[in-house]
Amino acid sequence: MTPLPTRRRLASGKVRDLYEVGDDHLLIVASDRISAFERVFPTPVPDKGRVLTAMSAFWFGELADVLPNHLVVCDGPLVPDAVRGRALLVERLDMLPVEAIVRGYLTGRGYADYRGYGEVCGLALPPGLAESARLPEPIFTPSTKARPGDKDENIDFDTCVSVLGRALAEEVREASLELYRRGAARAAEQGLLLADTKFEFGTDSRGRLVLADELLTPDSARYWLADGHEPGLPQPSFDKQHVRDWLVDPASGWDCVSPLPPLPPEVVTATRDRYIEAYHRITGLSLADWPRDPA
Ligand code: ATP
Ligand code: MG
């Protein structure tokens, strides 16, 4: 973690650190930490924090017409040099206690629920869908936002309504589905499938719904290569494929229980290249040009 002596640190997740800036703003700093199976590797992946931050900033700009978002600036005097390129200054919001997940393909926990009960978050799906299959249409599958150490739980829409109220729950669902459709369309133009993703929302001082957190980054979304998509099998993740393949190979020596081992240099390099490639493909921009002028 990068200590920022003039800022109070509010929280640290697996990958990002959150600092207070006055009463109304936060600095969200993405590190180069990389996680797998809910744990963090001891070896950083250089530039990963820059990629995550640049990609969020790109998507906040790209999707700003869907609804307002929390991004204020990505550069300038309020962003300390030590974290320049890895930090977003955002409006501090009252976060909604749900994670707004949208799935366009059947994978991960969505697939596990479908196999068990034929439905995901109370939404019945046609029988006979294979793992990684494209869904007839994208579905909104919210979950609770657990405290650190607890597990998020999938909830059905009625439970989401009881937590948020009907009007807000419907607004979150419609915004999430639209953000997903727009994101998936752009990814598809670049040969990537947006399998699923998570959005987080908050409300501002006027009670307006605002998009927050990170947006359509490899840490909050699953991207797959469209070429070679093969329903019936788990699909390799575009970004963490090398890390996971290496980790589950017996040669890594990992026993599924111990802390994660250090990553070998060739896996770090291949993973770094993948993150940078994801940024270039999706945005059409060069990471070398990031951050640009204050937004
Ligand atoms: P994990 O490592 O599993 O992601 P985490 O979600 O606790 O853990 P982060 O994602 O690093 O860790 O933390 C970011 C936190 O900041 C989240 O709790 C998120 O809800 C919150 N957050 C994001 N945007 C805002 C905002 N504009 N105002 C207030 N809180 C925000
Ligand atoms: Mg998080």
From TrEMBL:
It comes from the Bacteria. Its EC number is 6.3.2.6. GO terms for biological process: 'de novo' IMP biosynthetic process. The keyword Magnesium does not apply. It catalyses: 5-amino-1-(5-phospho-D-ribosyl)imidazole-4-carboxylate + L-aspartate + ATP = (2S)-2-[5-amino-1-(5-phospho-beta-D-ribosyl)imidazole-4-carboxamido]succinate + ADP + phosphate + 2 H(+). SUPFAM superfamilies: SAICAR synthase-like (SSF56104). Coiled coil: none annotated. Pathway: Purine metabolism; IMP biosynthesis via de novo pathway; 5-amino-1-(5-phospho-D-ribosyl)imidazole-4-carboxamide from 5-amino-1-(5-phospho-D-ribosyl)imidazole-4-carboxylate: step 1/2. This is Phosphoribosylaminoimidazole-succinocarboxamide synthase. It comes from Amycolatopsis vastitatis.
